[in-house]
Amino acid sequence: MFQRTTETKESKTVSVIIPALNEAEAIQDVIKSIPQSGLAALGYQSQILVVDNGSTDGTGELARQVGAETVYEPRRGYGRAYKTGLARARGQILVTCDADLTYPTEMIPDLVRLLVEEDLDFITTNRFHDMVPGAMSARNRVGNAVLNLALRLLYGIRIADSQSGMWVLKKELVSKLRLISDQMPFSEELKIECIFYERCRWREVPITYRERVGPEKLHGWRDGFHNLIWMFRKRFVR
Ligand SMILES: Nc1nc2c(ncn2[C@@H]2O[C@H](COP(=O)(O)OP(=O)(O)OP(=O)(O)O)[C@@H](O)[C@H]2O)c(=O)[nH]1
Ligand SMILES: [Mg+2]
What we know:
The chain is 38% helix and 19% strand. It is α/β, with parallel strands linked by helices. Bound molecules: guanosine-5'-triphosphate and magnesium ion. Guanosine-5'-triphosphate is lined by residues 19-21, 23, 53, 76-78, 81, 98-100, 102, 165, 212, 216-218.
C-alpha cells in the first residue's frame, strides 16, 4: 500500500501537464487560463508543461510563445504523452487537463487546496456534474456509461466519469503506479492503479465541462472498445 509522507513548506510547485496533439486553435488560451496567481496565493509556483505529441500545426511553438515549458514526444498516443510529461514534472502536486479548453482550469487552485486540506493522494473529476450542452456526444456518453459499469464490476470502483482526463495527484504516488498503456486506456489505468492497486486516499470531484475547441482526436467507438478490452485484460494480467 502507498505510504504517504508529510509535505514540506519550501519550494512547493504545482505542475500542470497538458498533452497536445495538433491543438493550435486552443493551446495558447488553455495556457493563459491557468490561474498561476491563484496557485501563488496558496504558496505554489507553477510549472506549465505541454507535451507536444508530434503535432504538425505548430502547437509546441505556440505553447512556448506564451511561456509554457514544452517537451516534444514524437511517439504518438495519449498515454505515451502523459508518461513523458510525468517524467518531466517537477511539482510535488500534479494537475492534468486536455489542450482543448474543455476542462475548468479556473478550478485548479480549489482542487489543489482540497487535495492538501483533505490529505488526499488523488482526485479524479466528474464532468457530468456541470456539462455544457453539446460538450459530449451521445455516443461518448453511452461509451462512458458502459466503461463506468465495467470499472465497477471488475474493480469495484464506483465513479461517475471513468474517462475524465482532469486529475490532481501527489507526485510521490506516480513511482508506485504500473502505467503501461500508451494510448487512451491510460486514463482509466491511472484511476485503477491509484484506487484499486495502491488503495490511496482519493475522491471524485464535480467539475464543469465545456465544448471542445479544434478538431476531435478521439476515435469514438474504436477507442471505447479498445478501452473496454484493455480494462478486462488488466484485471487478469497486470
Ligand atoms: N486522442 C489523442 N489525444 C492526444 C494524443 N496525444 C496527445 N493528445 C491530447 O490528449 C488530449 C485528449 O484528447 P481528446 O481528443 O481531447 O480526447 P477526449 O477529450 O477524450 O475527446 P474530445 O475532447 O471530445 O475530442 C488532447 O489534449 C489531445 O491533444 C494522441 O495520440 N491521441
Ligand atoms: Mg478533450
